[in-house]
Design goal:
121 residues; alpha+beta
Length: 121
């Protein structure tokens, strides 16, 4: 599961105000544990995407920025938890997004896509 921590932290803080002190503490501990679990999967990525989805990509990737922009596409750098959820998110955009870096994430995404397609043979 991808968790953009500053946003998650804001949500946990809001929920904590509505919860008991003990529930609030549990919420904060769970977020902290998720950070440590996801840290192993955190990876800098570079995506080329259609300009129509740039706002969504910037929202999804942590520490993201537009590296290059052309008339129809942009290259975005950011950090993501690279897991099945990330690949599913990417797959949902079809040909509107492409992993350009790093090579291992590109390769793993191709494997993921082939696995999905093989279900329909």
């Amino acid at each position: 599961m991808f968790c953009y921590y500053p946003k998650a932290q804001k949500l946990v803080d809001k929920l904590a105000r509505l919860a008991s002190r003990y529930q609030a503490e549990t919420l904060r501990e769970n977020l902290k544990a998720q950070k440590y679990d996801d840290a192993e999967l955190l990876c800098p990525v570079e995506l080329r995407c259609s300009n129509e989805i740039v706002p969504v990509v910037l929202e999804y990737l942590a520490d993201s920025k537009v590296k290059k922009s052309k008339e129809e596409t942009s290259v975005i750098e950011g950090t993501a938890v690279v897991d099945q959820a990330f690949y599913g998110w990417m797959f949902g955009f079809g040909n509107k997004v492409k992993v350009t870096e790093p090579a291992n994430v590109k390769k793993d995404f191709v494997k993921y896509c082939k696995k999905v397609l093989n279900q329909y043979k």
